[in-house]
């Protein structure tokens, strides 16, 4: 008897091309091949735009990535200079793990996430702009809408947290999250095949937003810890 087509796995759409990441990789490759050293000046923005066929904003986003890593600096009226040699390893910080069991992988990454996300919430509370508050609340409203309609809201939850990372105005927070998400996405997509994973943390997202809007770093940290405590409890309960 032929298999029911509805039982077949769904073909997922391809992710959009990350132009800034491509530019970052291309610039790192150029620096390596050209053997540029600390103190050397990079090609001008216009030259990079023409060579890579991208806009100024994409070039600047890639440069900000290197600046956040502490390997480049822009000097007003002079250009962008290397502070340290750049290789492909500068662009990516590959993550690895030794744990065999899903439970151990999730708990290990949660330990790292706890430090990063608590600090990000506190920094966002201190540095957020009025525009940041509008953006975070819009992401939260969408998360709540989807959650109430479907009982789960994974992509919307991620978008909410990314907006908080953006509100820190420190690109390293978002870069670290992206590195972790890329390495462990298959584990966090739907842990233990449970769509209700961490569902109890839903109300704390609103209180986290309230703390950031009120510029209250300690409350932001406390609400983040509540969210992650639910995640840890569900990892332990659902892996028994």
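Sequence proposed for the structure above (240 residues):
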């Amino acid at each position: 008897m032929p298999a029911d087509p509805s039982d077949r796995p769904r073909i997922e759409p391809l992710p959009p091309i990350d132009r800034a990441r491509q530019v970052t990789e291309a610039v790192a490759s150029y620096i390596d091949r050209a053997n540029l050293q600390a103190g050397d000046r990079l090609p001008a923005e216009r030259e990079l735009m023409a060579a890579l066929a991208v806009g100024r904003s994409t070039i600047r986003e890639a440069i900000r990535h290197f600046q956040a890593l502490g390997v480049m600096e822009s000097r007003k009226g002079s250009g962008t200079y290397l502070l340290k040699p750049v290789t492909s390893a500068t662009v990516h910080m590959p993550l690895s793990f030794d744990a065999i069991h899903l439970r151990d992988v999730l708990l290990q990454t949660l330990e790292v996430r706890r430090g990063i996300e608590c600090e990000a919430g506190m920094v966002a509370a201190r540095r957020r702009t009025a525009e940041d508050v509008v953006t975070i609340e819009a992401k939260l409203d969408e998360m709540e809408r989807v959650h109430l309609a479907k009982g789960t809201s994974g992509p919307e939850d991620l978008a909410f947290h990314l907006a908080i990372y953006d509100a820190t105005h420190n690109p390293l927070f978002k870069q670290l999250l992206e590195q972790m998400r890329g390495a462990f996405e298959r584990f966090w997509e739907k842990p233990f095949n449970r769509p209700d994973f961490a569902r109890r943390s839903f109300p704390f997202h609103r209180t986290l937003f309230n703390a950031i809007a009120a510029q209250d770093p300690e409350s932001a940290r406390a609400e983040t810890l509540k969210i992650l405590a639910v995640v840890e409890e569900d990892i332990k309960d659902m892996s028994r």
